[in-house]
């Protein structure tokens, strides 16, 4: 990231058949402690009589500089939005986990492992891209599931096998007990691309410019007088304002 590039932040929010690149503010949140990512698109008065969006319309939010934009969120609208004559001026989005929340499973699994139950449930939810833990778990003789969402099925698996695996979506791929591969470790440096760095409630909050390529559970390098080293991203938040001002806040654990 070159300093000269920071003066031309760009945003693009595609929701349903609409595409916004001005007059909107966005917030995106992604954390290891939440199984889903969520986002909010707030638009100005000029759009209030033109926007009509259905539940589960596809949505993509992109951030970047000088025409180079990266996806910071992919998902769906949580609720329908029809602002004609109304006062609603924001759209709430959730990632593909919304499909797992709304897919109901009823089945009895015989001689099954967690991975076998998960593959069946993900298939029912229409999820084709996934990566599951390679750990070997003993088979359960009988696992009855009655009218449970896929999220509840995952929690049932954790209870029955007495385990707790992280699960989440990244780039529309589902991960359970596994992480996406990482080909590059980005570095944040004092007096270069770190705007502010503070220790808040046991987590370092690193504020920087638009960094849409950073995801939770990835490794980053930090070089700062207060803390230096390689750290795993705990959570990340992106935000913009109507005038195009962009900020990323990256949270990680580390000793001062």
Shape: flat
Q: Mean pLDDT across all residues, rounded?
A: 89
Q: What share of residues are in beta strands?
A: over 45%
Number of helices: 3
Number of strands: 20
Helix content: 10-25%
Largest sheet: 13 strands, mixed
What separation lies between the terminal Cα atoms?
Answer: 26 Å
Structural class call reads mainly beta
Rg calculated over all Cα atoms: 20 Å
H/E topology pattern:
EEEEEEEEEHEHEEHEEEEEEEE
Uncertain residue segments: none
Task: Explain this structure.
This protein has 256 residues and is mainly beta. The chain is built from 3 helices and 20 strands. The chain has helices spanning 97-102, 114-124, 150-161, and strands spanning 9-15, 18-20, 24-31, 38-43, 52-53, 58-65, 68-77, 81-82, 90-94, 104-112, 130-132, 140-149, 167-170, 173-176, 186-189, 196-200, 203-208, 219-223, 228-240, 246-252. The strands form 4 sheets. Strands 1, 2, 3, 4, 6, 7, 9, 15, 16, 17, 18, 19 and 20 form a 13-stranded mixed sheet that branches. A hairpin with a 5-residue loop joins β19 and β20 (246-252). The longest helix has 12 residues, at 150-161.
Brief summary of the model shown:
This protein is mainly beta and 256 residues long. Helices cover 11% and strands 47% of the residues.
Fold topology:
Blueprint: E1 9-15, E2 18-20, E3 24-31, E4 38-43, E5 52-53, E6 58-65, E7 68-77, E8 81-82, E9 90-94, H1 97-102, E10 104-112, H2 114-124, E11 130-132, E12 140-149, H3 150-161, E13 167-170, E14 173-176, E15 186-189, E16 196-200, E17 203-208, E18 219-223, E19 228-240, E20 246-252
Parallel strand pairs: 11-14, 15-18
Antiparallel strand pairs: 1-2, 1-6, 3-4, 3-19, 4-9, 5-8, 6-7, 7-9, 10-12, 13-14, 16-17, 17-20, 18-19, 19-20
Helix pairs in contact: 2-3
């Amino acid at each position: 990231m070159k300093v000269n590039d920071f003066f031309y932040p760009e945003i693009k929010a595609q929701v349903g058949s609409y595409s916004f690149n001005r007059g909107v503010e966005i917030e995106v949140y992604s954390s290891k402690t939440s199984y889903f990512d969520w986002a909010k698109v707030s638009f100005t008065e000029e759009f209030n009589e033109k926007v009509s969006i259905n539940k589960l319309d596809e949505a993509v939010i992109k951030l970047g500089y000088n025409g180079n934009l990266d996806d910071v969120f992919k998902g769906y609208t949580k609720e329908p939005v029809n602002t004609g004559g109304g006062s609603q001026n924001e759209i709430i989005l959730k990632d593909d986990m919304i499909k797992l929340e709304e897919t109901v499973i009823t089945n009895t699994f015989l001689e099954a492992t967690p991975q076998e139950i998960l593959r069946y449930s993900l298939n029912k939810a229409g999820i084709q891209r996934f990566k599951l833990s390679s750990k070997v778990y003993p088979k359960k003789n009988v696992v009855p599931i009655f009218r449970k969402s896929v999220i509840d099925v995952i929690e049932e698996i954790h209870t029955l096998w007495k385990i707790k695996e992280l699960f989440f979506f990244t780039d529309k791929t589902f991960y359970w007990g596994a992480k996406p591969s990482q080909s590059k470790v980005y570095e944040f440096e004092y007096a270069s691309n770190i705007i502010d760095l503070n220790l808040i409630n046991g987590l370092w909050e690193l504020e920087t410019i638009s960094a849409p390529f950073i995801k939770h559970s990835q490794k980053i390098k930090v070089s700062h007088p207060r803390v230096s080293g390689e750290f795993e991203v705990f959570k990340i938040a992106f935000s913009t304002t109507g005038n195009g001002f962009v900020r990323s806040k990256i949270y990680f654990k580390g000793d001062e």
